[in-house]
Write a structure and sequence with these properties.
homodimer; about 90 residues; alpha+beta; Translation Initiation Factor IF3
Chain lengths: ~90, ~90
Amino acid sequence: MAEKQVAENVVLVGKKPAMSYVLACVTQFNNGKNEVVLRARGRAISHAVDVAEIVRNKFLTDVKVKDIKISTEEVEGENGEKMNVSAIEIVLSK
Amino acid sequence: MAEKQVAENVVLVGKKPAMSYVLACVTQFNNGKNEVVLRARGRAISHAVDVAEIVRNKFLTDVKVKDIKISTEEVEGENGEKMNVSAIEIVLSK
């Protein structure tokens, strides 16, 4: 995840309500994408799992979880110190 | 996850400090288990990912993430109403 440029079919999950990200995923699939990647770090990881579950259970029941990867990223804290934060990548596919 | 009996090599991740669960995993592996399963629900999902990352990066570098599954479970809320909660299962193996 070193790249700065975020691919078109990637949804970065943060602090907004889950439905914002659900809508982003559904829009990507409806625009013809066969794969959508959800990415999140830290506390937002639980949120990304919620989004994936809502998409495939409530909106697009033909969508499957193709792959899930976890990793550790280094981020800079408020005082410039380095901190490790866990990250998740959930690949949804039709 | 309907079973009430929790298999020996399952670590249920909740609200304790991450290190408690890391220690539980490391102990299982040191007792000869080749696989340890981390399970968590709701907000504890992020915590389970932290635990998995700490185990494999800091303690047992020969341990790999073999599989990750996400699901939705139905739990009963305080007032008896049913709520859906996301869950994760991370399988670590040597």
